[in-house]
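Obj.: predict assembly geometry.
Materials: sequence records (below).
Method: joint structure prediction, all chains together.
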Amino acid sequence: MSTTTLSSLKSEFPTLDQMVNGHPLAYLDNAATTQRPLAVLDAMDTFYRVDNANVHRGVHTLSMRASEKFELARHRVAKFVNAREDAEIIFTKGCTESINLVAGSWGRANLAVGDTVLVSTMEHHSNIVPWQMVCKEKGALTISIPVSGEGVLDLSVLRSLFTVHKVRLVCVKHVCNAIGTVNPVAEICRIAHEHGALVMVDGAQALAHEAVDVQAIGADFYAMSAHKVYGPMGVGALYGRRELLDAMPPYQTGGGMIQTVSIETSSFAPIPDKFEPGTPNVAGVIGFGAALEWARAIGIANFAATERALTASSSSRLADIPGLRLIGTAPDKAGIVSFVMEQAHPHDVGTILDSEGVAVRSGHHCCQPLMTHFGIPATTRASFAAYSTEEDVDALIRGINKVATIFG
Amino acid sequence: MDLSDLYQEIILDHGKTPRNRREMSDHTHSAEGYNPLCGDQIKVWLKVEGDTVADASFSGNGCAISQASASMMTQAIKGQSLEKVEELFGLFRGAVTATEGTEGCDHDHEPTYDDSFGDERLGELSCLTGVRKYPNRIKCATLAWHAMHSALANELTASTE
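Observations (raw structure tokens):
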């Protein structure tokens, strides 16, 4: 499928068809959240209009229908990331909760005084703070894996950290939301496993841009958010290897996750139910499944080709602008271009781009340690999706030229 | 959306060449202002003599709006009585956050802006009130003011949250 065919995808996204401040919307904030195609909106609408019932409870037709759709979504997620079985997929409210689940359950049960959790310097705060909390509680350490000047993880330092610390877990993101680096997660898993450590991969930014195979990567845990991959907000998933999930205590407790309950004691359901107490976000989960099915049908490889082409062209066009410096120049990048301008602060850049109908993110992208590494408070970030086009890049460049005019 | 409301000449000028941007060794009060939204951090330094702000300065980096606001604030409060400074703080905060007709929770109507809003007591500072039309930029304009207010209250940090 060619890039031109993909650009016709825009018509499947109602939000993209609007004027913003007198200009056609150029939505380049896809790393924050993608838009949703009609296929996803319809799937969620149909659930509420036609199938609405609670799952895993009633014996009536609607409840069975809702349960079936819910479990079909689990199957789709499992297939999409090549999990061994559906039960290895736990639905959560997003990547953040997925990571908190691992920290609260695996971390509390397994970390002890003197243990170390390695956290890459480019991690999102959601893969840093939960580990700080549990390490503090357990007397364990969080230690950073350094990043190079171009924004690549230093694997030789990573290897050496195992020789001086009792590393139990390595926390790393698959794709960096701030600068786009694609991390060699399979190699990192190999290194960690050689030293008896597990790996928590934050897959938030990868799912929409890379074909993800958790078995090939060797991930022990892999966190996902639906809204970063054309699905709804407030829903996500955690992949975990069965033997790990089986051994972990529940993270939250309540209805739907038990086998038997007396006033004194309870026994818990097998996975995935053990980690899914309470009524889940059924419409959200169904929307998540629909989004992955939509993406699968078009082909993630096609998405990746489009986004990489736009990343390359926008990077070279931006680099030509005097006073503009690209932040993060890793050889392997996915759909994200981050930059700073001598003339203007990222927030001013963001406001001026918005006046031209161009939506970008300006800020620290929840990656303050990475910003500190680069010695900057913030960047402006343009991020692409399957429906992005060279016209969007044209609008971005026009906007940047306007910034240069205003701030001379 | 008319950007010239936000990026007026005088704001661009103060943003590019901020006045009183220096640390102050003989300060009597200081506090940091932090905007968690963008990570901007500035520090306001004050020298209070009697009931007068004898000197005011700031340090740190930020966007054009926060730099200009900090710069203009230091000029506006230098030499003023504490009482006058407190009054200016209230006036300024009110002026940059006020949207006429949107007091309370009237979400059924588009906010309307009183373009003539201005208080002569604000002087040059009133040019910053254009920020009212950009709700996510208001904190940029108030950052230094909150830090200054915290400094006088002997608090060490101020957050715009």
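Conclusions so far: Residues 100-117 of chain B have pLDDT under 50 and may be disordered.
To do: check interface contacts against the pulldown list.
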